[in-house]
Amino acid sequence: MTFNILIVDDHPMTVDSYVNLLSEEGFNTVEPFFIQSYNCETAYKKIVLLEKQNVKIDFAIIDVNLPPYPDQNISNGIDLAALIRKTHPACKILLLTMHTEAFIVNRVINEIQPEGFISKSEVNFESFPNICKKILLSEIIYSDEIIKSQKKISQRNLDWGEYDIQILILLSQGVKMIDIPNHLPLSLSSIEKRKAYIKSHLLPEKGGDIELINKARQLGFL
């Protein structure tokens, strides 16, 4: 019986490093089998194929920032993690990221509830295997930067939903209001109402989208 570990990162050397580090660890005398991908497309296809073959993924290590797979609306590692939650619900998930902006962290924790969520700046060759061991022993491991970012949302009592956060992120990426319905299953009028709600929390004074985005960045949300 094998212990299937999915590793997804767009840097092949990083994937190789994870494989080498974990190959030296014991998995309760079970032989680890590594499934490697470097982008959302190949990872998506492997995840779906394994589900069809009734082959489980026991542990998934996924970088948040990955080349997307637009054909299946898979934009990043967060979307891959959501897919794994649906197709392989018993799988333990470790997400790694270089970006600890509060809205991204909040989305991951609320939508995915990963067993591990680590800032790449807080992990090294020595700590990585220990983090994985703890997760596989059913510990929840969030790094200090992740916890710090999460508190930025809770301290301001922002009761925002998934779409509110995505609207702000899309605006910060330069997507125009009129085009946001192409990215989210919402009408333009609903999006405008949600944006007004966001502005009431972040920008009580007058200002447009640029001022709103700048304020969100000043607060460390983006």
From TrEMBL:
<dbReference type="GO" id="GO:0003677">
    <property type="term" value="F:DNA binding"/>
</dbReference>
<dbReference type="InterPro" id="IPR001789">
    <property type="entry name" value="Sig_transdc_resp-reg_receiver"/>
</dbReference>
<feature type="domain" description="Response regulatory">
    <location>
        <begin position="4"/>
        <end position="135"/>
    </location>
</feature>
<dbReference type="Pfam" id="PF00072">
    <property type="entry name" value="Response_reg"/>
</dbReference>
<feature type="modified residue" description="4-aspartylphosphate">
    <location>
        <position position="63"/>
    </location>
</feature>
<dbReference type="InterPro" id="IPR011006">
    <property type="entry name" value="CheY-like_superfamily"/>
</dbReference>
<dbReference type="InterPro" id="IPR058245">
    <property type="entry name" value="NreC/VraR/RcsB-like_REC"/>
</dbReference>
<protein>
    <submittedName>
        <fullName>DNA-binding response regulator</fullName>
    </submittedName>
</protein>
<dbReference type="GO" id="GO:0000160">
    <property type="term" value="P:phosphorelay signal transduction system"/>
</dbReference>
<keyword id="KW-0238">DNA-binding</keyword>
<keyword id="KW-0597">Phosphoprotein</keyword>
